[in-house]
Amino acid sequence: MTAFKKSFNIKKRDFVRAGEASINVQNILKSLNMAPKLIRRIAICGYEGEMNVVMHGGDGILSVEIDTEKIMLDISDNGDGIENIELAMQKGYSTATEEHREMGFGAGMGLPNMKANSDDFKIESEKGKGTHVHIEFNVSAD
Amino acid sequence: MQVSANTMQSSHYVTFNSDICSGCANCIKACPTKAIRLYKDNHACITDKCIRCGECLRVCPTGAISTTTYELEALQKDKVSIALVSPVLYSQFKGVMPNDILLALTKIGFHNAMDVSYYIETYFYAVEEYLAENRITGRSPWPLISQVCPVVIRLIAYQFPDLLPHLMPIMRPLSHHAKGTRERISREYRIKGDAVTLYHITPCQAKLITSMSSFSQEYSLVDRTMGIKDVYAQITGRLNQMKKTGIENLREESEPQNISESCLFWGISGGEIAGIKSNKTLAVSGLRETITYLEKIEMGLFKDIEYIEFRTCPEGCIGGALTAVDKFIAKNTVLKMLRKFNPKPLIPRDKVVLPDKSGWGLSDITQNELQRIFGVYKEHISIKQLKEIEKILEQLHGKDCAACGAPDCRTFAEDVVMGKAVLNDCIMLRKREIDKILEHK
Which residues have CB under 8 Å from B309's CB, separation 6+? Predict the structure, then answer.
């Protein structure tokens, strides 16, 4: 059986609607009766990923692919890109602006948090070109 | 009220009158769980997804949707009938002392009317104790969610099951009020507990059905509920009469109850957290707002907050669907009352007996149990069905017109895949077919 796929657009600097793509994904997973703990992990990853795009990325796309064993989230954008991925993966490291911090973001937990909540985490980025995050979750794990 | 047999089941708290329904579809659009369908000849149907938020009651322009309640005549059959009064009742009568309202209740047929102040403060102290404990043990995840609003619990059971561990495991003040009052009255009147009939006078549409049990057993503790709007006229009439005959003499007959400041505040959004000693609290009211915040908690936000008070009615319980007076007027009445009457502050901590911890209820309840208890059921679909739904949606690309009787195209597509509707019900689809035929002519 082939997987179910769907994509959602994320808009640059749209803080008001940020999170909507992840909520859509959550609602799909809930209708499929996925385990609450699994949904929670995906919700956290989706939201963090979406916020990264809204804050640092350009416009982006969040795609979800669901089959009976695996759920994949793919978040890509054409924004700033990350200069040093190793550094960006460290807890507390942040390049957030003053504006971001005022809104309560930018604690430098986004990427580490995504990695901690997923079963497989891949990130590719090039300065000035954009970032591509691919995360996987095992359905049976929860 | 006439009820068509196919539309109502005993567990539903609203009745539809298809004779006066205009078919406007406001209710099906307003329903947050998409529980309502409107079939031919305006026969509405509520599915098991109903969380009793009361939105359909609020948006219905014709009054075709209404609630059923007990009539005051029912009191005559009771051996001893006691009114357990929601603090919101005090907000409905401008410039009237709460104790006079309780007095008026005894004049319209109740043997006694009881204020809930003491139990609200017991609840505050219990919450504070649990928060302090949780700071050490970390037993429950932050933020803890108030379980006072019954719609919030249903919403979580239905839509946010992963937030179940966030619910504050302490029984609502009303439950303790009912328990305590039944014991006291049966002692005072020297009768058995089951000879006492407890009526809850409430603004809350979600508390209407008493036969439904809740996980804090509230509904089995209260025997019957009456909407504030259903007794409002009688109380007003009696209050006017009391004023004419001289209210002072009547007051001497009964002992005034201690009504605290926090009790008067209780019905307004923020009234619960105002009584709890913690700086890390938040109050949210309104259905859409509650859903938005629950979504955010699910995504890992608000971990720095210890306790959130949610009320799905606008402005809190004073915005309940069974109130008689508008929420803003009611709020104003309470604020003016606080200035005028100088109610008593908190009952001293050492005078309050905390509820037995075994009665705090709900510790390791699962989603399935909770859904069963509340009678909310979420249908689940397979990945294959999900793909079929998307396919039908592409075909429809409609305008969410609700002419088919479902709230939007997506829900209609789901109904088709689940075999509850046929594709032909979509008038947009049919219009396009007709257009095609006309083009070919």
Answer: B146, B148, B269, B270, B272, B273, B281, B282, B283, B284
Residue A100 identity (one-letter amino acid)? H
Say how many CA atoms lie within 13 Å of B380 toward its Cβ: 8
Across the interface, do A113 and B161 touch by the CB < 8 Å criterion?
Answer: no
What topology does CATH give the domain A4-141? Heat Shock Protein 90 (3.30.565)
How far apart, in whole angstroms, are the C-alpha atoms of residue B33 and residue A30?
A: 13
- The domain total for chain B is 3
Closest CA–CA distance from residue A20 to any residue of chain B (Å): 10
Domain that holds residue B310: 72-374
Q: Are residues B346 and B387 in the same domain?
A: no
Distance CA B234, CA B348 (A): 36
Are both B301 and B405 inside the same structural domain?
Answer: no
| ipTM tops 0.95 | no
**B242-279: per-residue pLDDT in tens?**
888 877 777 777 778 888 888 999 999 999 999 898 88
Distance CA B409, CA B411 (A): 6
In contact, B266 and B121? CB cutoff 8 Å: no
CATH of the domain at B23: 3.30.70.20
Interface probe with A: pick from B282, B296, B298, most Cβ of A within 10 Å: B298
Residue ending a domain, choose from B324, B341, B374 = B374
Give per-residue pLDDT as tens, A29-69: 888 888 888 888 998 888 888 888 888 777 888 999 998 88
User: How many Å apart are CA A60 and CA A42, to the nearest integer?
Assistant: 18
**What DSSP letter does each residue of B135-163 carry, written as one string?**
HHH--SPSSEE---SHHHHHHHHHH-GGG
Asked if B381 and A32 come within 8 Å (Cβ–Cβ), the reply is yes
Domain spans of chain A, in order of start: 4-141
Based on the fold, state whether residues B306 and B441 are members of the same structural domain: no
How many angstroms separate the CA atoms of B412 and B405, rounded?
Answer: 8
pTM: 0.85
Last residue of a domain, one of B347, B374, B401: B374
DSSP single-letter state for residue B348:
P
Q: Which of A2, A4, A44 to mutate to test the interface with B (most CBs of B within 10 A)?
A: A4
The answer to whether the beta carbons of residues B407 and B36 sit under 8 Å apart is yes
- CB-based contact A4 B162, cutoff 8 Å: no
Q: Are residues B87 and B171 in the same domain?
A: yes
Is B141 found in the same domain as B188? yes
CB contact under 8 A, A30 and B300: no
Return the pLDDT at B9: 38
Beta bridge partners of B227: B202
Within this chain, do residues B230 and B323 fall inside the same structural domain, yes or no?
yes
The answer on B24 and B81 residing in a single domain is no
